[in-house]
Amino acid sequence: MKLYIRTLTIAAALAAQAGLAYPAVPAAQDVNCAAEDMQVLYYYLEPALDPKIKERTTKCHGAQTTLKMPEWLEKALPAMHEHKVWSDPEEGQLSEAKVWQTAFSILYELDYMTKKLLPAAEGGIAAEPARLEAEYNDIRLRLIMSIDRIVRAGLETSFEGRGTELLETLTREMERMDALTLALARQDDDTFYVSAGGALQVTRDLFAQFFALPQGAPGAKFVPKYRPEPRIVPGYRGVSLKVPASQVAFLESGSRIDMLVTFEAIMTGGAKEKVTATILQNVVVVKVYRPEIPGGSGVVQLMCNPNEAQYAALSLAQSKNINLIRRASQDFEMRPMEIASFKRLFK
Fold it and tell me: What letter does residue 45 receive in the DSSP assignment?
């Protein structure tokens, strides 16, 4: 580790003499202040406000050494805690405040993870970026899910109409996370450090929005200008399916599909009957390869968990009749589906 730091320092000095840019670890002040902002924002949304959080001393906001919680936010909180907007199988009924709080806690984790890049003298561990790839990818995935939950809960009117602009800032953060994790995968330190610094700045921009007047039309419907890049994430598998051209015509990266398989099932008494079963639901399309000639076949790559990947492979072996059914953009629900057959239909 010491050799890596020394090599980085020598290379940076040589690059400076030559007038070249060299990837640089974000400044400790930027890292610490971004983490502090998100920690404060998280505690602003706690049901029981700590007086030390409502008014606190800080060195992160220029000449303003005392930071006071916005009065409008304190007044809005009781209603946000009472307003239940999401049902989670493990956490139960979640309030409007809790759904936002989850996103802010993930951003705090992002800032804290970046702190590990700092040398020990500045509170870090001088971590090599490649060693943090799994952690950054996990944060990216959870941030996608958190933003998605806010959108699906329809929270554009949150925070006295600031919800839409906060979501726009969160998607800017998502763009930085895509660039950051892609740079890690390619071992591109230049882009990684630039993206890490950009992610810290977006975090601080998000915090600053709570101390400014709402911009644009308060509560306007959120229309994302950037969508996270679909990719295979750790713990998942890329499953490629060859399908007719008609099935790929309306699919694109990021689409969600159900996979239906039609096959001959052996029924009671040994009789065979053609049936259709929904094998996979709510699976993300990663890539779409369209046929180069009319009437040719296309290939669709799906992101499946290991269990789904097994059933996809079994389906390919069991049946040549596979249909990928596109879902509406905001439809994520998993539904119990019975096996379809004409015999059952005409009972």
Answer: T
CA dist 82 and 13 (Å) reads 56
What per-residue confidence (pLDDT) applies to 94? Answer: 93
Name the DSSP class of 268: G
d(CA 302, CA 286) in angstroms, rounded, equals 6
pLDDT of residue 2: 40
Question: What whole-number distance in Å separates Cα of residue 235 and Cα of residue 249?
Answer: 29
What was the pLDDT predicted at 347? 66
- Which of 117-121, 225-229, 236-240, 298-302 bottoms out in mean pLDDT, i.e. has the lowest? 225-229
Nearest CA-CA partner of 137 in 231, 221, 243, 73: 231
As a whole number of angstroms, the distance between CA 104 and CA 36 comes to 11
pTM equals: 0.73
- Is-contact 158 209, C-beta < 8 A? no
- Is the pLDDT confidence value at 105 over 60? yes
Give residues with Cβ within 8 angstroms of 246, minimum separation 6. none
Return the closest-CA partner of residue 325 out of 286, 282, 295.
Answer: 282
The structural domains of the chain, with segments of one domain joined by +, span 2-211, 237-345
What is the tens place of the pLDDT at every residue in 316-330?
Answer: 888 778 899 999 876
What DSSP character marks residue 324? Answer: E
> Which alpha helices (H) appear in 90-208, and where do they start and end?
96-115, 133-152, 158-161, 163-185, 189-208
